């Protein structure tokens, strides 16, 4: 089983003041204990690092880079994936739907990943599973 991890989940796990911290920490522990493969994209890494640096400072970026990134399989975005993501953003014409989200959806579809660890409503809108009921991760 493979689960895609989004910026919103990384931030919730790291920021103890985040509204989703308790749920995020619990899900993160469940994912690690279940042994599922955790996938993210290079765009999510950039977005997460920028968010952490801006809101929490360099210690949070260091924690992310040293303790979390090594647990992930990273899909590095190429020019074709970037352009396809931009086309999807423009076609959707929605102010709050980001390039990072659209690229994430494309990666998940290409790799056949159904589950996303996130607190972003765009993922379930796209048909991805964001809640992991008992037994789902086995």
Give a verbal description of the structure:
It is a single chain. The protein is an alpha/beta fold. It has a domain at 2-77 and 111-125: 5'-nuclease (Rossmann fold, 3-Layer(aba) Sandwich), CATH 3.40.50.1010. Helix content is 57%, strand content 11%. The chain has a four-stranded parallel sheet with strand order 3-2-1-4, with helices on both faces. Helix 1 packs across helix 2 (21-34) and helix 3 packs antiparallel against helix 4 (58-68). It is globular, with a radius of gyration of 14 Å. The mean pLDDT is 95.
What's this, in brief?
The protein has 138 residues and is of the alpha/beta class. Helices cover 57% and strands 11% of the residues.
Question: Which terms summarize this structure?
Answer:
single chain; alpha/beta; Rossmann fold; 4-stranded parallel β-sheet; 7 helices; 4 strands
Topology:
Blueprint: E1 2-5, H1 7-14, H2 21-34, E2 37-41, H3 42-55, H4 58-68, E3 73-75, H5 79-92, H6 99-111, E4 115-117, H7 122-125
Parallel strand pairs: 1-2, 1-4, 2-3
Helix pairs in contact: 1-2, 1-3, 3-4, 5-6
CATH superfamily of the domain at 2-77 and 111-125: 5'-nuclease
Shape label? globular
Order of helices and strands: EHHEHHEHHEH
CATH fold call of the domain at 2-77 and 111-125: Rossmann fold
Number of β-strand runs: 4
Distance between the termini: 7 Å
Summarize model confidence as the mean pLDDT. Answer: 95
Weakly predicted, low-confidence segments: none
* Share of residues in strands: 5-15%
Q: Can you count the helices? A: 7
**What is the alpha-carbon Rg in Å?**
14 Å
């Amino acid at each position: 089983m493979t689960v895609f991890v989004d910026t919103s989940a990384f931030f919730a796990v790291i920021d103890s003041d985040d509204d989703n911290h308790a749920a995020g920490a619990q899900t993160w522990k469940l994912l690690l204990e279940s042994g599922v493969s955790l996938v993210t994209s290079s765009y999510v890494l950039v977005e997460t690092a920028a968010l952490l640096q801006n809101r929490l400072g360099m210690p949070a970026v260091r924690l992310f880079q040293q303790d979390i990134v090594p647990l992930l399989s990273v899909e590095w975005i190429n020019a074709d994936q970037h352009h396809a993501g931009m086309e999807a953003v423009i076609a959707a014409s929605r102010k709050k739907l980001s390039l990072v989200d659209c690229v994430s959806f494309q990666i998940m579809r290409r790799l056949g990943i159904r589950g996303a660890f996130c607190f972003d409503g765009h993922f379930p809108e796209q048909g991805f599973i964001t809640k992991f009921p008992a037994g789902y991760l086995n």
